[in-house]
Design brief:
By secondary structure, the protein is an alpha+beta fold. It has one domain. It contains 3 helices and 4 strands.
């Protein structure tokens, strides 16, 4: 039984590691249009072999804010508008 466990452990540790990198900027307009006209959320996420990072903020004119960020200007991030 111990040998089977050791073999399974070795196989698990030898599985290929994904090197896919996901970089997204999500812009979502605020749903409370009565009090927060023109405001929305901007979420910037990066996930890959070097780790996971996430930044989110609530902004007036969120689309303008996202388009002026260096992440967007780098061309590496996918822009998602909700």
């Amino acid at each position: 039984m111990h040998i089977e466990r050791q073999i399974l452990k070795q196989q698990w540790l030898n599985l290929p590691v994904s090197t896919a990198v996901t970089k997204t900027i999500v812009v979502e307009m605020n749903k409370n249009k009565k009090f927060w006209i023109g405001y929305g959320y901007v979420s910037i996420t990066s996930d890959g072999p070097n780790g996971y990072t996430h930044f989110a903020t609530h902004q007036e004119f969120p689309m303008e804010y996202a388009l002026n960020r260096e992440e967007y200007k780098s061309g590496e991030y996918k822009l998602v508008i909700k």
